[in-house]
Amino acid sequence: MTVHGSPGAAHRTRPVVRTVPAATVREGAGFVVHRPFPTPALPDFDPFLLLDEMGPATYGPGEALGAPDHPHRGFETVTYMLDGAFEHADSAGHAGRIGPGDVQWMTAGAGVVHSEMPAAEIRRSGGRVHGVQLWVNLPRARKLVAPRYQEIPAAEIPTVRSDGATVRVIAGTFAGRSGPVATHTAVTVAHVRLEPGAALVTELDPAQRCCTYAFGGPRVLVVYGDGDRLRLTADGPADLLVLAGVPLREPVARYGPFVMNTREELVAAVEDYRAGRFGAIGA
Ligand code: MN
Question: Cα(70) to centroid of ligand 1, in Å?
């Protein structure tokens, strides 16, 4: 599939500049994730702060683990399910459930307490869970915006199919389509499925940095350099998460679930959370 721009324009295809292996770590109550960043080798991918592939894992009855009540401030958390289902609830009064192909885009902003758990029937009876969690930073001017919750069912995600490539556009503009998520920053998030030997060539805003991560694949993040065109290929079948965004180029101060610009702001976040100012789920 080739998405054409202005005829005759000279294009520059983004080169691969770096590959970064994912670390394997335990998160939440102890479930295993594959994490390309943050790691010592790659502290972030401005404007993205964290990328976790959750599973794939097949749980027995009573085994499935999630992330019970915990706070966030200063950024957005995104969950994209590939298999299984997750349930979410937060102190701003939002609750929801996402299944395969659905997206949950939660803006923590000024602060929420939320829980992210495998669906009740998976916790009870077991089942397969596979998904992605992404943290998107907020710029200084928006770190304390009101919390927001966007739940996008799979059917509302634009899908483009052509020449062995299937593209689902979650946020931003990619392969000629725009995703349904309202974003605070200039970011692009897409899922590209390639059949063996297929290639996808598309324009991508040159102001956005870009990387891809293959779900269930070699667990390597591929970082692309400057250019106005992205070319993705696969020898075998591949499911690629495409992340692109205009870097914020601001100081990043992070302490667990809080990501601010300065240490003082982190101290204030911890104090506000401990004082109960983020509220509580169901309160
Ligand atoms: Mn969380």
Answer: 6
CA of 71 to the centre of ligand 1 (A): 7
Distances (CA, A) of 92 to 19, 106, 147, 178, 184: 38, 11, 7, 28, 18
Q: What percent of the chain has pLDDT over 90?
A: 89
Question: How many other CB atoms are found less than 10 A from the CB of residue 4?
Answer: 11
Q: What spacing in Å lies between the alpha carbon of 200 and ligand 1's midpoint?
A: 33
Based on the number of CB atoms within 10 Å of its own CB, is 111 exposed (0-12), middle (13-18) or buried (19 or more)?
buried
Task: Read off the amino acid at residue 74.
Answer: G
User: 81 CA to middle of ligand 1, Å?
Assistant: 15
For residue range 44-54, list pLDDT tens digits in order: 999 999 999 99
Whole-number Å distance, alpha carbon 122 to ligand 1 midpoint, is: 19
Phi, psi of 38 (to 5 degrees): -80, 140
Which CATH code is given to the segment(s) 16-274? 2.60.120.10
Per DSSP, the three-state class of 34 is strand
Ligand 1 centroid, distance to 87 Cα (angstroms): 12
pTM of the model as a whole: 0.95
Residue 165, CB-side half-sphere exposure with 13 Å CA sphere: 24
Residue 195 to residue 206: CA distance in whole angstroms: 27
Residues 131-163 have pLDDT tens digits of 999 999 999 999 999 999 999 999 999 999 989
Kindly give the distance from the C-alpha atom of residue 77 to the centroid of ligand 1, in angstroms, as a whole number. Answer: 7
- In what helix (H) or strand (E) does residue 264 lie, and over which residues does it extend? helix 263-274
Residues 252-269 as b or e (16 or more Cβ within 10 Å = b): bbbeebbbbbeeebbeeb
CA 189 to chain centre: 7
CA of 128 to the centre of ligand 1 (A): 20
For the chain, give every domain's residue range.
16-274
